[in-house]
Amino acid sequence: MARRIPIGPGVMWRATLLLLFGIPLVALAGCGTAENGNFNRGRQLFVTQCGVCHTLAQAATTGTQGPDLDAAFAQARASGMDPDTIAGVVRAQVEDPRPVTADPSVSMPPHIVSGVDLTDVATYVSEVAGVRGIKPPTAPGGPGGQIFAQNGCSGCHTFKPAKSTGTVGPDLDKVLPSMTAAQIKQSIVNPNAKITPGFPPNVMPQNFGQAITPQDLSTLIKFLMGGSSGKG
Q: Among residues 80, 99, 128, which one ends one of the domains?
């Protein structure tokens, strides 16, 4: 009679995660590879390259096109999955996302980061994803600055009051002074209504009108107005 070999919860969760992300189970063999990238640089890269599609509490990102990484890794981490294994899962998914389609709501493009950048992102995610009670660092600019950071704005826009230097979206120090509060609100809740020349549509998340509460939206607009010479 064959002897049954017990399978620990950590192994089960590795398999579950790989299936969740669509990674072949053979990838388990490489998931223990040590990652020693730059944590802070990995956070910045995650916010700018990954945060539009993924929720991750420590990064203050709220993307919904891809899996919520906190939810995806919380139980696995609680069951004993180590950071190196999590980093391996992240690396495998970035290098070979499944399924590969032209629809970003179904699959992310392969190699969205690579080389040293991928090592830094994998290291960062492996340390923070699914950690109970984790919060983003305190952002400059008071409550409005915190809302700005928590919604990933600092990863995409340059804005001196927020000490942000993102270049994915328009430089807010340049565009806000000519905008009214109503125009700023529209650019947040309906970003495709008026596209800044030189930037493509559909880059900024379309769900901020639902994701940001009316009170937080008002606080954010006041923060943006206060950091510019815009008119009310």
A: 128
Return mean pLDDT, the chain. Answer: 81
User: Does an H or E element contain 189, and which?
Assistant: helix 181-189
**197/175 same-domain check:** yes
The domain containing residue 215 runs over which residues? 142-226
Distances (CA, A) of 50 to 19, 111, 192: 20, 12, 20
**67-120 confidence digits (pLDDT tens):** 899 999 998 898 899 999 999 999 999 998 876 666 655 677 888 899 999 999
CA quadruple 146, 141, 221, 227: dihedral sign: negative
Half-sphere exposure of 229 (CA within 13 A, CB side): 2
Q: Is residue 134 part of a domain?
A: no
To which H or E segment does residue 44 belong? helix 39-49
User: CA-to-CA distance for 40 and 17, rounded, in angstroms?
Assistant: 25
Burial class (CB within 10 angstroms; exposed 0-12, middle 13-18, buried 19+) of 107: middle
**Do 124 and 14 fall within a single domain?**
yes
Closest CA to 92 of 118, 67, 53, 56: 118
Are residues 106 and 70 in contact, defined by beta-carbon separation less than 8 angstroms? Answer: no
How large is the average pLDDT for residues 124-128?
Answer: 96
Q: What is the pTM of this model?
A: 0.61
The answer to whether the CB of 168 falls within 8 A of the CB of 133 is no
